[in-house]
Specification:
single chain, alpha/beta, 8-stranded parallel β-sheet, two-stranded antiparallel ribbon, 10 helices
């Protein structure tokens, strides 16, 4: 259907489908990463904040030592958390991630959110009010990110959850361009405008929560995952696929990469086997019509921050 990688603005390539690791518990994530490598995954989406990079590292290194994959075949992403936006904190945090993953370098390092918290605040300061906010400019943070490239700690750098205005401001003030903006993308929030905006600036969009969050399905006011939409269930029967495969195929057709999270082997396998069919126009039009601009992950608790992006 489409190529299995997308070219980044520095000439490197990112695999279209990666494994998300957020909220994958201890004991589960090692097995998930191993199963994913066996299923053909080469792109793994990690973050310091997820608290499981050490276990991801064990699985990656086992597979490298067994000769199943070479390090250069893998594409490993990590992210800088909000409490460490000060310029001089970026390199040490990147090194901490490398030490957890037991790798000499990562392929992509992202600024997790454009807004920062004070180092003295908790990691998720939802009850600490604006006293927890740091006013460190993400432009300062970016200087630390560029240093990570210069030191060979990461091959590429990018951003996550940045809006159009923030991206343009960064592009005007950077030495090394971001290669990726990782944002929530699913049929409820298809981000077509932002995808086009980034494409014009040679930035690839990676979509997180591509299948919504099924564990919250039915919660009042929470976006209903499209995989439970009866029409999508019908489509799945028509193509002899699963609803998740229908949704992921649709998202990938928008020209983005996706990082569906799973710890279940059958789903891990299913989520990467999406390249052997093409949705017809009517089905694409229906999925387009699902866009409600509803976020699974609005982080509205931090909406008073001057660098809040939504």
């Amino acid at each position: 259907m489409s190529s299995k990688t997308l070219k980044l603005n520095n000439g490197l390539e990112i695999p279209v489908v990666g494994l998300g690791t957020y909220k994958s518990g201890k004991g589960e994530v090692k097995r998930a990463v191993s199963d994913a490598i066996d299923a053909g995954y080469r792109h793994f989406d990690c973050a310091w904040f997820y608290g499981n990079e050490d276990e991801v590292g064990v699985a990656l290194n086992e597979k490298i030592q067994q000769g199943v994959v070479k390090r250069e075949d893998l594409f490993i992403t990590s992210k800088l958390w909000n409490n460490f936006h000060a310029r001089d904190k970026v390199v040490p945090m990147c090194k901490e991630t490398l030490s957890s993953l037991k790798l000499a370098y990562i392929d992509l390092y992202l600024v997790h959110w454009p807004f920062g918290f004070k180092e003295s605040a908790s990691l998720w300061p939802i009850n600490e009010g604006e006293a927890a906010f740091s006013d460190i400019d993400y432009l300062e943070t970016w200087e630390g990110m560029e240093k990570c490239v210069q030191l060979g700690l990461t091959k590429s750098i990018g951003v996550s959850n940045f809006n159009e205005e923030q991206i343009d401001r960064l592009l005007k003030n950077c030495q090394i361009k971001p290669v990726v903006n990782q944002v929530e993308v699913n049929p409820n929030l298809n981000q077509k405008k932002l995808i086009e905006f980034c494409k014009q600036r040679d930035i690839v969009i990676t979509g997180y929560c591509p299948l919504g969050r099924s564990e919250y399905a039915g919660t009042p006011g929470f976006p209903h995952p499209t995989i439970f939409d009866p029409k999508v269930v019908e489509m799945a029967k028509k193509y002899n696929k699963t609803p998740a495969q229908i949704v992921l195929n649709y998202l990938v057709s928008l020209g983005i990469s996706v990082v569906p999270k799973s710890v279940t082997k059958s789903r891990i396998v299913e989520n990467i086997n999406i390249f052997d069919f093409k949705l017809d126009e009517g089905d694409v039009a229906y999925l387009d019509s699902c866009n409600k601009n509803q976020r699974v992950c609005p982080l509205s608790e931090f909406s008073a921050h001057k660098y809040y992006s939504f």
